[in-house]
Amino acid sequence: MELKVISENGKAAASVNASDDLFGREYNETLVHQLVTAYQANARSANSKQKGRSEIAKSTRKPFAQKGTGRARAGMASSPLWRGGGKIFPNSPDQNYTQKINRKMYRAGLASIYSQLVRDGRLSVVDALSVEAPKTKLLAQKIKAMGLDRVLIITDSMDENLYLSSRNLPNVLVVEAHQADPVSLVRFPKVLVTRGAIAKIEEMLA
Q1: Residue 118, CA atoms < 13 Å, CB-side half-sphere
Q2: 115/204 Cα distance (integer angstroms)
Q3: How far apart are CA 129 and CA 140, in angstroms?
Q4: Where are the domain boundaries for CATH 3.40.1370.10 in the chain?
Q5: Which of 128, 168, 189, 201 is the most buried (most CB within 10 A)?
Q6: What is the secondary structure of 42-98 as a DSSP string?
Q7: CATH (one of 3.40.630.30, 3.40.50.300, 3.40.50.150, 3.40.1370.10) for 2-44+98-205
Q8: pTM, two decimal places
Q9: Which portions of the sequence form the region Disordered (predicted)?
Q10: Separation of alpha carbons 122 and 113, rounded Å
């Protein structure tokens, strides 16, 4: 498979050969959904705590007589059926939200995402991307000249000037090839990959 390489003004300059297994795979929506869901679940922290029935600071005395009041019988005010009572199944900070994804599934899911990006015309390749100084304005001008706006930039190695220049751009994220996650790949409308990063991605997902 050939991927188009664009110049700094966004015009097609050349092409680069890429693996068909990585960039020409059929889209597996079920696998991609599982991959994205698991990635978000694994980033979730269990920091919610609710009180159960035994933890509520209320008297254990019977609120009123069992019979004769006409009301439903009640044993104590900490009942989950009452306002201010304990939760039946309270959230615990010990809860584990992680989901396991096999390595083979993860690689196949990423390959499916990359292949769909190519089919949709959302993935572009550039020979290299760098800025002369760590200035947001310089990177913003380069991205605009390429005809891009909201973009995920994947590089083979992190350039400090490029990283510092991107921090104040809310719609731009710069990552190395091994840091490209499924959520970012799906979320950004455009993905810009350096030629060196293509080789690294093929090496990782082969």
Answers
A1: 26
A2: 16
A3: 12
A4: 2-44+98-205
A5: 201
A6: HT--------BGGGS-S--S-SS-SSSSSSPP-S-TT-TTSTT--BSS---TT----
A7: 3.40.1370.10
A8: 0.81
A9: 42-94
A10: 11
> Is 92:102 a contact under the CB 8 Å cutoff?
no
Q: What residue type is assigned to position 151 of the chain? A: V
Give 171's contacts (C-beta < 8 A, 6+ positions apart): 149, 150, 151
Within 10 A of 65 (CB to CB), how many other CB atoms are there?
9
Residue whose pair of structure tokens reads 């304005």 in the numeric block: 137
Reported as a single tens digit per residue, the pLDDT across 83-134 is 999 999 999 998 899 999 999 999 999 999 999 999 999 999 998 888 999 9
CA angle (101, 105, 107) in 5-degree steps: 110
The angle subtended at Cα 30 by Cα 103 and Cα 43, nearest 5°, is 55
Q: Would you mind telling me the total number of residues written for the chain in this entry?
A: 206
Assess contact for 73 and 66: CB atoms under 8 A.
yes
- For 203, the token pair is 């090496």
